[in-house]
Write a structure and sequence with these properties.
Layout: E1 4-13, E2 16-26, E3 31-35, H1 42-49, E4 57-62, E5 71-74, H2 79-82, H3 88-94, H4 108-120, H5 136-150, E6 154-158, H6 166-181, E7 186-190, H7 194-200, E8 203-206, E9 212-215, H8 216-221, H9 223-236, H10 243-257, H11 262-316
Parallel strand pairs: 3-7, 3-8, 5-6, 6-7
Antiparallel strand pairs: 1-2, 1-4, 8-9
Helix pairs in contact: 3-5, 4-5, 7-10, 10-11
């Protein structure tokens, strides 16, 4: 039985329909990425899954031992949230409240769980630090630990790498992959990073004028996948500078063509080319420096000769 099942959903607000007849299932251990254009209804779908908004029609059910309250949530951060004046310990521990068990004080079990999740996220040294003093990547780890206090079954992640630098982005994707593959946590992630989506996800849900749900391999071969990835790549071709992003793009292309081993060869070839270029640039720089030094020496000799000539004229007078 599926952990989460959405059938014939129609989503919208104030009478405006965003998505019609949306159906998909998420099973234990799945890594589902939700992609699509801005305003297509991705955030509305997340809020509906979390029972923060009711669907206009259709049903959402949970199963396989999962209840509606056992879905952890990592939202996009606002400026106010980034500056929240609480300790890491307090924020992580507050995730236990999502379990729906009201009591005036946290139990020993909840405190143990908070400590374990802090350790899992590698932020033990920041336990007593103020949340707003941390970097963006550290804050995301804190919020992920908080979400894990609510559940160990399903995590909903809304743009978890938004605003992070390339290295921290890669670290965050690796951490999420570890939770999914090694700890069996089901992942549902909204993302605009299509290349990362097809690299890490097992399934893709494309929300837009048309809807696609299936494996990432089928998505890349589908009409929706080809059109959407082509539009994203046409924009990124003008701005992509990070080698890690290029590796992700190459791997997604190789997945689409079935050539999984090619990405490693492409990466090695590119590194070799960059090393040769650095060596060539260094040689050219040295040659140019020697050329520049020669005219300067000649200039000093000419200037010295002019001074001697003028000195001789003065003596003759």
């Amino acid at each position: 039985m599926a952990q989460l099942s959405c059938k014939n959903l129609t989503l919208g607000y104030e009478g405006d329909v965003l998505v019609r007849d949306l159906s998909f299932e998420v099973n234990k251990g799945d890594y589902l990425c939700i992609v699509g254009e801005n305003g297509s209804g991705k955030s509305t779908l997340m809020k509906t899954i979390l029972n923060l908004r009711s669907p206009m029609s259709g049903t959402i059910t949970t199963g396989d031992g999962v209840t509606a309250r056992e879905i952890g949530y990592l939202p996009q951060q606002t400026i106010v949230q980034r500056d929240f004046p609480a300790s890491v310990w307090e924020i992580v521990l507050s995730g236990c409240q999502a379990r729906g068990k009201f009591h005036p004080f946290y139990t020993k079990e909840e405190k143990r769980m908070a400590r374990e999740n802090i350790e899992r996220m590698g932020i033990t040294e920041y336990t007593e630090r103020c949340y707003r003093e941390l970097s963006g990547g550290q804050q995301q780890r804190v919020l992920l630990a908080r979400a894990l206090c609510a559940t160990r079954k399903i995590l909903l992640l809304d743009e978890p790498v938004s605003g992070l630098d390339p290295k921290v982005t890669n670290d965050m994707y690796t951490l999420i992959e570890h939770l999914n593959k090694d700890e069996g946590v089901t992942i549902i992630m909204v993302s605009h990073d299509v290349q990362a989506a097809v690299r890490y996800a097992t399934h893709i849900l494309h929300v837009g004028t048309t809807i696609f749900f299936g494996t990432k391999e089928k998505y890349l071969q589908s009409r929706e996948g080809r059109l959407f990835t082509a539009s994203i790549e046409s924009d990124e071709n003008l701005t992509i500078k990070n080698p890690a992003q290029q590796d992700i793009r190459n791997e997604s292309e190789n997945i689409a063509t079935g050539n999984v081993s090619a990405s490693r060869k492409e990466k090695n070839d590119r590194n070799s080319q960059e090393a040769k270029k650095d060596s060539y640039d260094g040689d050219m720089s040295s040659d140019k420096q020697r050329e520049n030094e020669q005219p300067k020496a000649g200039g000093l000799q000419n200037e010295s000769g002019d001074v001697m000539h003028k000195a001789g004229e003065e003596a003759g007078k």
